[in-house]
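hi support,

uploading two proteins for the ticket. first:
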Amino acid sequence: MTGRSFSLQAAIIGFSIRFRGVVIATACLLFFYGLYGLRHASYDVFPEFIPPRVTIQTEAAGFTPEQVETLVSRPMEIALTGLPGIQRVQSTSIQGLSVVNVLFATSTDIYRARQLVGEQMNVVAQQLPAGVHAPTMTPLTSSAGLVLVIGLTSEQQSLMQLRTLTDWSLRPRLLALPGVAGVSVFGGERRSLQIQVHPDQLILHHIGLDDVLAAAQEATGIQGAGFIDTPNQRVVLQSDGQALTPESLARTVIVRSDNGAVTLGSIATVTEAPIPAFGAASIEGKTGIVVNIWEQYGANTMAVTREIEAALTDFRPQLQGQGITLHADLFRPANFITTALGNATRALLLGGFLVVAVIFLFLFDLRTAAICCATIPLAILIALSLLETLGVTLNAMTLGGLAIAIGEVVDDAVIGVENVTRRLRENRLLVQPASTARVVLDACVEVRSAVVYATFAVIIVFLPVIALPGLSGRLFAPLATAYVLAVMASLAAAVTVVPALCAWLLATPGETRREPPLAGWTARAYERLLARLMRHPRFVIGGMILTTLIGFAALPFLESDFIPDFKEGHLIIHMTAAPGTSLEQSLKLGRQVTEKLRQLPEIRSVAQRVGRASLDEDTYGPHTSEFEVDLNQVDGKASRQIDARVRKALDG
């Protein structure tokens, strides 16, 4: 270390000792500011690990998957490929729907990307075939943007009534909440007025389908009626009479002749019926409605969840009055965040307790142990404040980084405090002891270079993790960032706060400090062991090399996984049937799978503990189903056992 940096450290430590009241007060302010930031921090399940992405959906009613691919998806892909910053364009074409995903480079501004895509969409929309709706961009959401999944079932209301209430009452209310980006509704029957034409009546009255379509459009549409000017005012005319019921639509006149008027009801059956369904949903074996609620990009998952649940609580009496059962927690990612926070909190408390116990046993003094332990919450809270400033959410990765940093954040303080207590003990045995402030300064400066070197060595190890490219970097870089910030905060506290606390708490005149018993015993034992090892250096080096080789040889036999198993207790089963499978058959298969899942003893035991085990099945298309099993009270080991039993049951 150069003399300039050494003198700078000495100056910082000397300032902290001289103005220890200011330093301690500042540390207290940072501590309480960190607590305030922790209370108002933004929480999420995972960091934003997917690159900037824009999703475009285009409806093409009546088109086959091949036609959607050729006439809709492919022109969209060709038009979007030339945009700047694009990494990949991929599409999915199913009956009547095209979904195009455009992935941009990591550094791309997502809002600028959406603007560029929107400009190209306006050009492509003019080239699409007749009958294809204009392409639309889905709401901007984060990678883990699904904030809540709820369901509706009823024994009194029909599926059409359920869907109508959801589309026109519940969905607008949810979309109006702050932080909600989109609401997707699956299942139910969408109401429509259908005109089922009788061909023989068309021939009898010499009427074509175009005449029927024109009459229906005119009867169900709204047209302006103009206005009338008077000397004093302008009177706006409003036309009424839009046909909203089958009876009123059936009275619509198509043509008039000498034999009388020909109405829609005379040449067709006009009825209220659902439009052809493209998906279905069931909840615990009962057909109903499943609603997926998505949060806005960068929103606070916990805050949005609370807003949604408050709105559902207000809406529940209205549903109960109509005999509708609301399943408000089919999938709740906030449970995962709460579990992660609880696990991290327990890890922090347990780690802090163990650190306090070890420090007290080795230093054998409450004041020195308190000085060391004060750096743990201070460093963690400062790191949380810095993460919030950088726009990083508190999620499973950042909390994991803070948890593994507990042992490191206290290390810098322990080294400094132990050396200070040793120097104070030696100083009090001198004939002319120096001042406490001088001893603390010299002791802190003496070990500070080693502490700085060790801290930066640890930080350098984590820098490659922060620089990881692609999906791995976006997922694991926040963990390394949280760890590095916590270690840097602990180093800053060791240079400033620890010397100030030592000068304040350890400056007791005339006090004689003895060597801690456990520290003295371990030091003597280590000296004996070290003396023996020094007599056989080749044996030590050979053992180290052998251990390293054994470690490398064991690598191929270790199981590898991209991310570890989380203990959130949520199991998702995705099932794909043969192409062309009908919705009725998909729902039948879903009920069979649900019954098999209910027979598993682990799921039955969970149902007894939490009241019920939520099973909801979404059929997104005629041959694709997804089942979600809510097992929030199951630990990681039990989840793996259930996963194996589910696979075995489904294979049967």
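and the second one:
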Amino acid sequence: MRTPAARTLADYGVIVRRSWWLVAGTAAAALAAGVAYTEMSPEVYESTASVLVLPTAGDTEVQGARTAGQVNLDTEAQLVKSTEVAEAAAAALGADPAADLVSQVSVTVPPNTAVLEISFKAGTPKQAQEGTLAFSEAYLAHRLTGATASIEREIGTANVELETVKAEIDAAEDRLDGMGDGDGGRSGLESDLEDLQAQAAEIEASVAGLQARAQAVSPGRVINQASLPQAPISPNAMFNLAAAAGVGLPLGLMLAWARHRLARKVSYPADLVDRCELDVLASVPPAVKFQRREVFGAYSPGGRVFSQLRNVVASQLTADQRVIVVAGVAPGPAASVVAANLATAMARAGDRVTAVAANPSTTVGLPELFGTDPVPGLADAWSGRIDLATAVQAAPRQPSLSVIGPGAAARAAGPTSEAAAETFAKLAEAGRFVVVDAPPLSCSADAQLLAGHADAVILAVQSQRDAIAETAAAAVAMRQIDTPLLGAVLLPGVLGPMNTVPLPTARRELASRPMLTADETPTDSLEPVEDAAATEVIPVVDAAAPSAASAAEPR
């Protein structure tokens, strides 16, 4: 038996194939949501400009920076999105407030370059281009202001020093004017004045150099102007649809798996293997139609299925093993259909077979399928009304197949272990195989009792009708006895006209029908058995009254 742990990729494919409509529907719904999102999303355009960043006097090399060079471009990228730059860009665009613009701008640094790629997103191509231009210019202007500020501070410091020196020069000249040519100390004062004049000239030259540097500062330039975007970057229909499919398909697969695991009814052969731990001996495809209440023909699709079932069953039984019990899970004709077709397939193969109707509760049993009389039958023999040989009837069109109906004393005397063992022993001596149609396990323990005296057990399961829990419980019940459980036969959920027959629970609806009189009852001529006063009197069935016997059994 293959357990759930031995699941293969093909099993998952079967699960997907069962729920293909669920997977496809979920994927289609996700794609529809992607299309709706694409249609409802506003269009967004993006324009990009490339700015070459040049080092200035105020730049210092940062150790461990991502880019080589004197300028730390990661810092400069953050500077583009700073409040000062955003306010300047907002003023240029006439937008307010500036904080809304920061979320629209993005800056990237291409590897191993001194370039900043500044992008701006907006609702129209023109706004995107203008926003990129405004941020690029505002950034360069801010960088220029920062670079020239330090030079202007140096120029201011030099000018203050120059004014001090000039004041000292003026003081020295005034003192020289008040001294005569022969006064002592005049030569020293003249020497100091020359030094001060040289110092002033040096400072003036330094200021001139600083002013030249300030005018020559270049913080960078735009090397690729912002272009007018031709198509929106968002919404991206292909990306949205791919993302929707990427979400919808896995979700559909998960729903299909959940549907498989949470299913309450048996639907497919894999359910019997995975959920009930049953081998599947045969499965009648849903395409096989049950046209009327009779067994399949030898060369029909259903007939081929049961011929293969016969071969499987015969291969697993020895020459001394002859009794096969077919039990259903829930009330219905499933067990009778399997038992009748299996017995017929064995008879076609040349075996002598006796089909026993041990399920009196079904409305479509072996007598209805074979066209034989339900009485006298098994219950009559068990109650002692008749001999077992009297209950055996020849099946039409099958010389090697005999049928025993349920009998009319089913409600008065049920099966006993001794009676079942004796009956099966007698029938096994008369033929090669004995196929027993047993009551359903969900409402009777008789099938377990009968199976205890059989050589093999087969469960008949009807798709979309029998519950997985009840099927698993039936399998456990059969494994609790020593008789081997060969497996299960899965029938379609629709069994044609047999589904229109009332279930056993509906027999109470027949109580209002007129009852047959004693003269009309085909069993009113039987002599009572002396030691069975508790049972009703069952007459011997006259061979000339098959129609009346059929009329006595509600259909």
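thanks. also noticed: Confidence is low (pLDDT under 50) at residues 1-6, 501-555.
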